Amino acid sequence: MLHDLVDLGRYPIDRPDSPAYDRMIEDLQRELGQDGCAVMPGFVHPQGIELLVSEAEAVAPMAHRSFNRTNAYFTKDDPRFGAGHPIRRFYDRSNAFVPADNFTKSGPLRRIYEFKGFLPFIRAALGEPADRFFRYDDPLADVIVNVVEEGQGFPWHFDTNNYTVTLAIQNGEAGGAFEYAPNLRTSEDENFDKVASVLDGNGALVRRLELQPGDLQIFRGRYSLHRVAPVTGKRRRYVGIFSFVEAEGMCGGIERTRQLYGRVLPHHHAREGMRKDQLLD
What we know:
Layout (H helix, E strand, L loop, with lengths): L18 H17 L1 E4 L5 H14 L4 E7 L20 E8 L9 H7 L3 H9 L7 E2 L7 E6 L5 E4 L5 E8 L3 E2 L2 E4 L10 H8 L7 E3 L6 E4 L5 E4 L2 E2 L4 E9 L8 H8 L4 H6 L10
Antiparallel strand pairs: 1-11, 2-3, 3-5, 4-14, 5-14, 6-12, 7-11, 7-14, 8-13, 9-10, 9-12
Helix pairs in contact: 1-4
């Protein structure tokens, strides 16, 4: 059970047959229907946050730190498009991810992800059928921690996995806001014009969140352009990331995996191209 981590009184993910569970799902579905994002404040209680911070501190040295330039799709440059096209716009990226194979089954982060009621709860909130909702089959990326240090952030991008669930563990001293342009593309349309508009600084399409430690966020990151503003101060920002996808067996693309985690496994080569849509990674 998750009593030592999750506020199950407020968020009864362990009681799917209860009226309280139904109300919780209704609230989340309403939020997700509005802009593809829902936040559950204080999902993890203060004692649970202490355990998660301790784990994050222990594994932070294993983070793959990378400093390079990426576009919103984590793809290579494509000279077939004009210079101002979103595919050809590259931005400095300085960030660090602790790969999934550093988190043990007995650790707090993986205990939440693999709790038997967690996937059905997230699936119900998103309104997805059982045959189109699976854990991310990526040994480096199903459960990770994003480590952001002073001056670092994450530029505008789309997620390769359909659904991302993030857990705020520790904030930096300042900065680190989450900004997103909801539902900017669909599985059939990249909508490059609106992507370019956001990249050009059109704030009318952008929403901003200041998540607090313990907050759980459910986000359709495959379709919403998003970024993390730079962190200031010496304290590191930790965010746990749980990933789910619509195609069983799907894992990260080779180019993106190498950029984010510094290595690629045979598993990634074997699963390359296993997805339901034809969107850029």
